[in-house]
Amino acid sequence: MITLKELERSYPAGAGKTWVLRNVSLTINPGEFVTIMGPSGAGKSTLLSILGMLDPGFAGEYYLLDQAVHKLKPKDRQALSKKSIGFVFQQYHLLDDLTVAENLDVPLSYRDVKSSQRASLVADTLDRFRIVGKKDLYPNQLSGGQQQLVGIARAVIANPQLILADEPTGNLHSEQGREIMALFQKLNKAGTTIIQVTHSEENALAGSRIVRLKDGWVVGDETVSGKQ
Prior knowledge:
Layout: E1 2-13, E2 16-28, E3 33-37, H1 44-51, E4 59-64, E5 67-68, H2 74-84, E6 85-89, H3 100-109, H4 115-128, H5 144-156, E7 162-166, H6 174-189, E8 193-197, H7 201-204, E9 209-214, E10 217-223
Parallel strand pairs: 3-8, 3-9, 6-7, 7-8
Antiparallel strand pairs: 1-2, 1-4, 4-5, 9-10
């Protein structure tokens, strides 16, 4: 699914550089549920941004689905991202002036999906996530947990092979957080590869593997106990 070889990211700082990621080499196989952990400033969100092709300014090699991302033109990276990746954010990033159903339709509008098929996919997804009753509501009419549920539904509606989640339960209370992690586990068991960034050890235990960063370096890579 993903191979990183000596991935690095730095920013100019005076006469030198500030390093955010150093010599990151990882392989993530299809169907894994990987958690990236580390203290603030470790490079977690930067790594996730690179994996999501939101940050092209890295050095090293990045392969996704056998495609050399580091060699792709910007438009080809964008096409690969839209086709293969779903994003879940801590801040939800729903469009405030669109209803729940309209928010779900947005990712489909980026693809060559006929309007009749789009309507069917939206209806199926509303039913799958048990939010049919919320379809005509706007984000500000939903609780935080409901907004995040819609965010995840939006991320998976186009059936991406990979979900990238940045602190997906950061704004939720503990019970809502556990519900979101249970949903991720269900999606993962159905075949979706998931990579999440979190500070929560409890959330990390929902996955199958933990990669730990510190000062931009990979300092740990472990299988979650009892999971292979």
